[in-house]
């Protein structure tokens, strides 16, 4: 007993997370640069000016490793005190990349969190298994499309939703541009679309789910969640980098039955590796599904980045439920077999404009998409 | 009357803001790329698939101009419908740069807002004149330092605050790394520091103001604002890109007597021009003062960027109060004359580590800094 108690106390006080940066520097300068990052991301002041021994021992960031990845490119591992995060999402981001985000020679590449900190955030409410249950899809990949363009009135969006639902999709999400605009207020739009999808779903016998896009501050987000739940909905869409991660975390915690889909708006420019931000961190803060630009579409993510992002979202992780990868962005039904071979069955394919371009043939084209996903033979 | 009424209605429905992007492209490709950005930032789908005439006329983004700035670099002006923003901060960011943030050939350079939209956000509560009143500084530049390192207990931070206040500073802010951590809970820290600064301020006869750093979700931010106000404080620090702009806007609106200082944490990597994000947009959402990395310190902003940022924060703008530029980041008292010559009297100089390095001589060094700023002869 006497031995165990101090050991725990010490362990708790000194517990560290590891932030992994990719840094461009000359070989002769990297040691000093790594040390500067460790200080910038912890005490942010000259070490000789710190008198407190505990701060020097337990709070100052520690360079744990430097590895050369190629000419002028290094991986730097910095151990930061878990206690500095206060187990709060915003403060975690602050510790990982607050000031260093302003230095353009640094990318936040990855992070390793002790299980205790991971548990404090706890991740998705439903996870991939929960989404499979929502969609009634036991083993196959899932499908999704988007309601757009913004500017349409609620009834026109509801009619689109009805036709997409008749095409047998699993999820129909709002375009992330649909907010609470005068020409299509959130309450009217969500009620109309939820009813249209429910009716079509009843007709097809499929469990098609409508996923409204939330926006605004935490008060407004909560009002919108309440409206969505009153309309019988079980999943919502948010852009975590626009609403702020602390708000995502709050919504996930106070709505344990609700599933969350994350949208990458404003997240692309953050010089944080996409597998970390859109895969790992959004999952940690509670995204059950994460939308990202598929390779070969109209965004620049490579095949390798997409693969790593899907892996970060899905791999086993200290009891945090897996998050469903949702590749999107300029996709077409023709690419279904190739995408499913690449991502496997644990994914959701999102095709928006590529379906809506079918015009009068929207239901037929959507049906082709749904069937192609359902019938795909995984190798 | 008959003439005026339809004119207003048309104007209202078609009212536009202008987003200004800097785009890297071949000259032969820029027209198509500009059009693609206009679509990405509005309807996000192929135009032929849009049947609604009103959406095509009023909602689709319009390329208003393309200018070559140099070989392979273009300025693209895109007019976006004001109605799409719903006058909400997050949705405004979404419309300006949501998906395009993922395209690394694009920088959001500037934005021109119609007066009606500017008025909807309304900007700072106090502005530069309000901060001058708080500091009792009629014409001179103002001074600031930071409490750090994080990891110190509340009483040690309060002792630091006391000594900095004895040095005659105008503002003493928390390091942005101070959150609500177990070793220094927000409530204890803020109470202790507020008391220490009030006592020292009484002794010196100067109006030194303590500015605590807020963090967390909107509920937590509100609780911290209440604690700060209960401690008699009139200004707080937030990192808008961490808490999310919608939360900043909510706090500013519901605390009309409170002043806000913005910190650039997590804002540096956003590929949004610093004068726009840290100067114009933070001001629009309510920052009375905005901290940014001064040129020649440990961050990479150029002298030109800093000058433009200060200009964006201060210039006359449709009745929006000006925001005080706060250059910081590796500054020293030696640089005071040069910085004041560059920024003029409407600024606040922030020196953190450069003062704290004085150790036992902290009060003297701080006094030197305060005096140097107070006595500077502006040319």
Can you give keywords for this protein?
Alpha-Beta Plaits; homodimer; 43% helix; TIM Barrel; alpha/beta; 2 domains; 4-stranded antiparallel β-sheet; 379 residues; elongated
Strand and helix layout:
Two copies of one chain form a homodimer.
Chain A: H1 4-14, E1 16-24, H2 30-40, H3 53-59, E2 62-70, E3 73-81, H4 89-97, E4 106-112, H5 115-121, H6 127-135, E5 142-147, H7 154-166, E6 171-174, H8 186-204, E7 209-211, H9 218-230, E8 235-238, H10 240-243, H11 245-254, E9 259-262, H12 274-284, E10 289-293, H13 303-314, E11 324-328, H14 336-343, E12 348-350, H15 353-356, H16 362-375
Parallel strand pairs in A: 5-6, 5-12, 6-7, 8-9, 9-10, 10-11
Antiparallel strand pairs in A: 1-3, 1-4, 2-3
Helix pairs in contact in A: 7-8, 7-16, 12-13
What is the CATH domain class of the largest domain in chain A?
Answer: Alpha Beta
Q: Can you tell me the residue ranges of chain A where pLDDT is under 50 for at least 5 consecutive residues?
A: 1-12
Q: Level of helix content of chain A?
A: 40-55%
Task: Give the strand order of the largest sheet of chain A, numbering strands 1, 2, ... along the chain.
Answer: 2-3-1-4
Cα-based radius of gyration of chain A, to the nearest Å: 23 Å
**What is the CATH architecture assignment of the largest domain in chain A?**
Alpha-Beta Barrel
> β content of chain A, as a range?
15-25%
| CATH homologous superfamily designation of the largest domain in chain A | Ribulose bisphosphate carboxylase, large subunit, C-terminal domain
Instruction: Report mean pLDDT of chain A, rounded to a whole number.
Output: 89
Overall number of strands of chain A: 12
Counting H and I runs of at least 4 residues, what is the number of helices of chain A?
16
For the biggest sheet of chain A, the summary is: 4 strands, antiparallel
